[in-house]
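Weekly modeling sync, notes
Attendees: AB, CL, MP (scribe)

Item 1: holo prediction request
CL wants a bound-state model with FE2/S2 (inorganic) cluster before deciding which constructs to order. AB pointed out that an apo prediction alone won't tell us much about the pocket. Agreed to run with the ligand included and paste results into these notes for async review.

Input as submitted:
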Amino acid sequence: MTRHDVTLEWPDGRTQEIEVDGKETVLEAAQRAGARLPYDCRKGTCITCVGRLIELEDGRDEPNDDGAAASDANGTEAPRDAAAAFTYRRSPAALTDGEQADGYVLLCIAHPQADCRIEVGPRVRAGVGDSPWA
Ligand code: FES
């Protein structure tokens, strides 16, 4: 069974590495490991569980396939395309294509396709719009 190591990173500097089995979502693996992450619907509709992909450890240096630099002149990291890093149990309809391209991922329905680091916590939630069904 395919497994991936996922490092969760909170704004206060805490980190926790979890192992996500192929059939698990990131949220399910986090709960199994005792990590507390926010969630509500568990169906990809409310955005409560949103995280942001920081780094994808799949052997590529570039975050996207378009050849964009990994960081700009100010050292700001370019967003990783979450749509390329996760498969979903169901459509992540609460996120726009642009939000996915900026690295946002719904952890309740997301299966990672490579080892990666994900920012979690309320600051991530503040970066995306409201659920279209809110
Ligand atoms: S818990 Fe609602 S979208 Fe994940």
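Recorded for review: Residues 39-42, 44-49, 94, 106, 108 surround FE2/S2 (inorganic) cluster (CB under 6 Å).
Action items: CL to compare against the apo run; MP to circulate these notes.
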